[in-house]
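Render this sequence as a predicted structure.
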Amino acid sequence: MTSRGTATARTAPTASRPGRTETVVTARGIGMAGAGVALLALGIGLASTMVAFVGLTVLAATGISAVWILGSVQTLRRRYRSARRVVAPFPLVVGEPGAVTVDVDALHATRRVPLLDIREQAAPELTGPRPTSAEVLRAPGRVRLAYALRPDTRGRWPLGPAIVRVADPFGLAWADTPVGAEELVPVRPQVVDLGAAGGARLDGLEQLARGARRASADDAAVREYRTGDDPRRVHWPSTARRGSLVVRADEHSGRPPATLLLDLPGDADAVETAVSAAASVALSVVADGHGLTLAVPGESTVSTWGAEAPDEARAGILDACVDLRPGDAESSDSLARSAHELLRDDGAASLVIALVEPRGERDPGIVSLSGVGAGGRAIALVRAGDHASDTRRALARGGWHCAIWNDLGDLPDAWASVARGTGTV
């Protein structure tokens, strides 16, 4: 027989810790304990056996409550030791609904339906601003908790543990006991399909890149060696000429590899749109058959995906975007350093794509970045703002193909313009 009920998926109290039982004495319990002490003191003071006996009885009730709670928690811990949680889809995506089921199984299943008062702790970034109701399904030896998720913030957010509440018959106290463990659930950024815009492929820019002045043919598909690279991919002729270790990059791809430079803003709200735009562009580039390197100024590591496994590259790109955070006060200097690295590793990527903030013509990062556009192989998406036109003008003078975008809604048209090589130069 299955019964149904409701529970609330709530956030954990700030004082609680996963794995520890939180016990709370109710107002009734505090009142009864105080009354018991007062009656006992009054009975002793008045030499009244009856009043003292009543006080002892009241105190005994509070003692029984404590023993009841302690015994219930111990029984709960012995019988229900773990919870199995399934999140679908996994990982989650901003703005797309998800669902969670949590199964709490008894150590020794019986035909008796457990009457557990169960709820689940969930970060508000996963459940959204509105209260979340959960459905509780009870079966012999098992309790299942099911509720919906409405993720609204990118990142990794805690989910769980399941919380079972036990209370004494007198309502003097209750205890919340965690069952199972907490886990971090990744929430990927929202993306838009840039392929839906006509001509969103990089064909036009590739033709410009093929005719542009670049490094020698041996260097055209190599990049600096990074920890974890397969030693068999080392390109020894280029290594000998450069004096530093380099590896072949996407040499089997029919299309030249690309580097995506993401200039993150410092504002927490603006950074979400920037990350979504970068993820959308990266997915479009990989789907078009290019290998991709994602570089974020200020970050010590870069991520590279080959063109041979587009499905793995797509998952890797979205996962890499989960943990990106706003830039710091030195973001202009970081952007300048990234530009110098692109110039130094000219053979590492035939195409350069940059998503930049409106910084102005004299910003050190923009000045340095403008030197990367020589040869017409670079495109820039400049976010709309007070200095967007100045930023675009500075990059265009350096040979960049530029377009200004404001939000995710107009990103496909901006991308189609620069991908065809028809953006402002």
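Summary. Residues 1-18, 211-220 have pLDDT under 50 and may be disordered. The radius of gyration is 31 Å.
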